Amino acid sequence: MAKTWWKEAVCYQVYPRSFQDSNGDGVGDIKGVTQRLDYLKDLGIDVIWLSPVYQSPNDDNGYDISDYQAIMSEFGTMDDFDELLREVHARGMKLIMDLVINHSSDEHAWFIESRSSRKNDKRDWYIWRDGKDGGPPNNWESIFSGPAWEYDIETDQYYMHIFSTKQPDLNWENFEVRDALHNMVNWWLDKGIDGFRVDAISHIKKTEGFPDMPNPDRHQVVPCFPHMMNVKGIEVFLSELKKKTFDNYDIMTVGEANGVRIEEADEWVGEEKGYFNMIFQFEHLGLWNKNGDKQVDVRALKETLTKWQQGLEGRGWNALFFENHDQARSVSTWGNDKEYWKESAKMLGALYFFMKGTPYIYQGQEIGMTNVKFPSIEDYDDVGMRNFYYIETANGRSHEEIMNIIWSQGRDNSRTPMQWDSSPNAGFSANGSTWFGVNPNYPQINVEHQLQDPTSIYHFYKQMIALRKQEPVLQYGRYDIHFREHPSIYTYTRELEDTRALIICNFSEEVQTLPTPVGHLREGDYLRLANYDVSDKGIPQDFVLQPYEVRVYVFPKHS
Ligand code: GLC
Ligand code: CA
């Protein structure tokens, strides 16, 4: 496989609203990101993925864009952005932006025109339909709960919104829309940014004729959104997008590809003709026990991740991640954020970080930030979760029951401000009131503490990044799984020419023993990373692994 910079990179996602407030108004901003670049550089980051900073009324925190070529005033100015880009490049790092083109804001000039009359030139830039039997055109549901259609009284039609009512879907069938989007994408690329994370891109095509969903009672239950996710015909739009924009630049692209299956990998991320360099797939994220009893299905996790690792071998490239701004915190979800907070956060890090693909770290993951538990729905911000709360309350579910879901799965878990130090507001903002609550555990969990503690989660991440860069086997080596049937150990190897690596993870709170999957290597300094003290640096005949223990070995193949 060809070597490229983005295969060797480690990416870090910044959610700017919660990263660093530079001017004390309680909202993170672009200058705040610039101020923290040395921190990211020192950690070893190569590429920063910046969540949206475009002009937006913030119904969905910037994922509802009202002007693609302007910066949200709360975040700063275009000059601030240009300065950020220069400073990122000056440190030898790269910057990719979020590209949100399945929908715009309802406050975008295009939509304002489109909604103004049925005869307007831009009417067809969005998806407008007549109602049916006194209700919406069909039974499709929004990913944020409730119908996927909103009635517009002025023109007596409905517009489609897969996400919130303030995020009308653009009509990709209209070539003028595609043209306008291509021009905008090229405008940013000409500015010198280094690529895009492409939002919700598997939703841009809808089934022709807009037929009802098959299961009218619970539309969101499997099969999930069959008429608005990865619908046949999407390939035309994606190939065109690639050809008219991405192909003409040395950039990286990562598509958010909900619903794309490994069988479609060649089209989506194939080395030769894939629409993107890599995609985020989400199959592994559903594999934890949502009842909160912490029983992760380790076997299912192995099956899913291994399917993607082996399925893309020699064909395409994976994007590796456990966290982003839409997921609850990994240490709370998959690990134990109390007794084994440190151990489990490190184990989870190493588990995904050394697979084949480009690893992504979400802000705060590198210090083991945890989920949060605010008492009232009024303490929460996420439009998706708030809709869910009000709709489920109307359906008769109790406050406790709904809040339990929000506490364990809500997207706001990962959107609390970054915990920099133990000063008020965790060093995120000088303001008394921040846009969203700070997790009360910041005096214990923060960057400043962890910089000083060589055994911290932060230092473990820093070592992981350095190790991945030192050892080509960890970048380009083939992935193989071992002990596939074991219920609580996840162990895999990587192999490249004469070098092998072994990653062995105890995904449980019990001591586990396991024979070596790669042979006994008595002599040698092969242990490169561990989260417990291990005196023997060779590979033992039998492993005795403590709760959430992880070890990473790199060794010669024929020793
Ligand atoms: C993606 C984003 C999410 C956003 C949605 C709509 O899934 O990651 O945060 O709400 O798209 O743009
Ligand atoms: Ca600010």
Please give the radius of gyration in angstroms: 24 Å
Measured as a percent range, the helix fraction is: 25-40%
Kindly report how far apart the N and C termini lie. Answer: 26 Å
Instruction: Please state the overall shape, judged from the principal axes of the Cα atoms.
Output: globular
Low-confidence stretches: none
Mean pLDDT, to the nearest integer, reads 95
Structural class: alpha/beta
State the helix count: 16
**What portion of residues belong to β-strands?**
15-25%
Which characteristics define this entry?
binds alpha-D-glucopyranose, 16 helices, 559 residues, binds calcium ion, 8-stranded parallel beta sheet, 5-stranded antiparallel beta sheet, globular, alpha/beta
Please give a structural write-up.
The protein is α/β, with parallel strands linked by helices. The protein is 27% helix and 16% strand. It has 16 helices and 20 strands. A hairpin with a 4-residue loop joins strand 7 (149-152) and strand 8. Helix 11 (341-353) packs parallel to helix 15 and helix 12 (383-394) runs antiparallel to helix 13. The two termini are 26 Å apart.
Offer a concise description of the structure.
The chain has 16 helices and 20 strands. It has 559 residues and is of the alpha/beta class.
What's the layout of helices and strands?
Layout: H1 5-8, E1 11-14, H2 30-35, H3 37-43, E2 47-50, E3 54-55, E4 67-71, H4 78-90, E5 94-99, H5 109-116, E6 128-129, E7 149-152, E8 157-160, H6 175-191, E9 195-198, H7 234-244, E10 252-256, H8 265-269, E11 278-280, H9 298-312, E12 319-320, H10 330-333, H11 341-353, E13 358-362, H12 383-394, H13 399-409, H14 447-452, H15 457-470, H16 472-476, E14 478-482, E15 489-496, E16 499-506, E17 512-515, E18 527-530, E19 542-545, E20 550-556
Parallel strand pairs: 1-2, 1-13, 2-5, 5-9, 9-10, 10-11, 12-13
Antiparallel strand pairs: 3-4, 6-8, 7-8, 14-15, 15-16, 16-20, 17-19, 18-20
Helix pairs in contact: 11-15, 12-13
